[in-house]
Amino acid sequence: MVEPPAPGRAERRWLEWGVASRPLAGEPESGDSYLVEWFPGGALLAVVDGLGHGPEAVAAARGATAVLAAHAAEPVAALVQRCHEALRGTRGAALSLASFDRAARTLTWLGVGNVAGVLLRPAADGGVASQALLLTGGIVGDRLPPPRPTVVPLPGAATLLLATDGVRGGFAAGLPLDAPPSQLADRVLARHGRATDDALVLVVRYHGPMP
């Protein structure tokens, strides 16, 4: 079966993103990686943290993102299982995924390990409502618990942040929802990045239903 082409630039205006990252001092590359992959009807976002740092962590992270890119339209639980099989024999990784379904107006997310996820939305009182990704213990490629994805309705605009453990907790507090994702990613890394590990933060802005 021939799949339909991925959406063009004009069809992608419902979603924008920005990323900020840095390797541990002294390392040429970061073992933290990310993916933004469009597929017909939606988009897959992922952040992968190869365990530890250095070449083995880089290899694990790249292995996971390659698998995700090749199968982006699949359900997130199936994607985690694919990554688990692909990373056997490697150092392994922590992994969080978020799949947007444009027609259903939903986000399905899943996390194994310690890649934190936070979803921010305007609250009825004018403030910001925050929802955290439920993470399960384990290591993709070594010890994988039963995947437990969560489906979140998206009736309107929302901002998603995914961050590796090289970013300290509380990173989503006080963020302005009207700032561009790239600025938010830079701000989070500058204020909350740890000097003792690779660090990466991916910020995704969902603009809500669009014609």
Quick summary of this structure?
This protein is of the alpha+beta class and 211 residues long. It has helices spanning 55-70, 76-86, 181-192; strands at 15-22, 32-39, 42-50, 93-101, 106-112, 116-122, 128-132, 135-136, 150-153, 158-163, 199-206.
This entry's quaternary arrangement is single chain
User: Strand-residue fraction?
Assistant: 25-35%
In DSSP terms (H or I, runs of 4 or more residues), the helix count works out at 3
Largest sheet: 6 strands, mixed
Poorly predicted runs are: 1-8
Q: Helix fraction? A: 10-25%
Question: Which sequence of SSEs, written as H and E, runs from N to C?
Answer: EEEHHEEEEEEEHE
Full CATH superfamily name: PPM-type phosphatase domain
Q: What overall form do the CA principal axes indicate?
A: globular
Give me the secondary-structure category. alpha+beta
CATH class: Alpha Beta
Count of beta strands: 11
